[in-house]
Design brief:
The protein is α+β, with helices and mostly antiparallel strands and about 100 residues long. The chain has one domain. About 40% of the residues lie in helices and about 20% in strands. It is built from three helices and four strands, in the order ββββααα. The protein has a four-stranded antiparallel sheet, with helices on one face. Helix 2 runs antiparallel to helix 3. The chain is globular.
Length: about 100
């Protein structure tokens, strides 16, 4: 079972036994996301209201899933593609014993 923690515009925050769920009431079933902390839910809702791109990859994916705005969803998808092409630092000497 779940209980409603808060409602902000079209976003509803539900608390379950394990986590918190953000549901977009204007969307379908697939327009929801799961989070461990309540504060993360409020941060993500504020970012989606302002149409800001999140920095964290899991928040980027969650915002893309939750939103129903087509232009914002396309901007988030483009950012994900750019992050996949990004070159990450790799330390080849990590774990070498002397």
């Amino acid at each position: 079972m779940s209980r409603v923690v808060g409602v902000i515009d079209e976003y509803k925050i539900l608390e379950t036994a394990r986590d918190y769920i953000i549901v977009n009431t204007n969307g379908k079933y697939e327009n929801h996301g799961h989070f461990k902390k309540l504060s993360t839910c409020f941060v993500l809702i504020r970012l989606m209201q302002r149409k800001t791109i999140p920095n964290k990859p899991f928040m980027l994916e969650a915002a893309r899933r939750i939103t129903t705005d087509a232009t914002y969803k396309e901007v988030l998808s483009n950012k994900q593609q750019k992050n996949k092409q990004r070159q990450y630092y790799y330390n080849p000497n990590k774990g070498v014993r002397k």
